[in-house]
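User: Structure tokens for both sequences below?

Assistant:
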Amino acid sequence: QDAEIVRTRDPELLARCDVVVDVGGEYDPGRHRYDHHQRSFTESMRSLRPDKPWSTKLSSAGLVYCHFGSQILAALLGQPEDGPAVTALYDKLYENFVEEVDAMDNGIAPAAGEPRYALSTTLSARVGHLNPRWNDPEQDTEVG
């Protein structure tokens, strides 16, 4: 509630943050560091939660969801974290939303070989439409 969001790649600033997501080159949940940009990083939902079937390499979004998704859903639903409603919703949200984010962020194609059709309404495509065009003279994404 009282958190300040800092957008930076400055290691000195990152070192002072309580939680770091998608930058810093470190995955260490004990220190709340959730980046997937290391050559050695291979974690999936299944590797971190063996009771889950998904083997798609996690993005930073997937890491945060893996570690906090059940807790957040439980709080929103007013249900126990290990209850059937939270478990079912956690699984469905991962399978039908977060896994796509993980795959797209890690460059994992939705199909082997040539896709049979274009995916133009993915989350990545929608976010991409918010970015300035490559030749737009105003490239500041913070202007809005």
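Moving on to the next sequence.
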Amino acid sequence: MGGRVTRVFRTFNVESRARREISKEKPTPAPRHPTARLDTAADCAEIKEEILRKDSRLLTLLKDVYVESRDPPVQVKDGSSEHLPRKQEEKRLTKLGHLEAVDVKKVSKGKISLVEALTLLNNHKLHPRIWTAEKIAAEYSLELKDVNSLLEFFVPFTIQEFPKETKKAIKS
């Protein structure tokens, strides 16, 4: 409904508005800044003479400059030195459970894999007195503040099965 109303106002008197715009005087362009033409400068004999003249003072200064360069000795590169050196990260083997085929084998210290994260969250949920934040941090080589944040903000899902009587009550 709103589209029809706006279309009516948009198309109202279109032809006369277009003729009015076309009949207006065109604005005059801004005046150009006067510049020296390159063609006229090339024709001038004085400029050509100045370009072709040699400056003796600059030539004597140039003769005093002496540059000596030597190429470094060529070294044959073998395949092992192609990689750039990088900071070696300490890695640890993951604590693999029954999802061993899905998980990665090595993880950098201070990080955990997805399977390990789910495992430690589930362990903490089932046995919070045994799996404290300090024990998890020591077990998985993590910082205590990161473990506290992980346990506070991430909670694994729980499956709840409702008794069959409630299903009948909902249907009717």
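User: Anything stand out in the second?

Assistant: Residues 91-153 form one domain.
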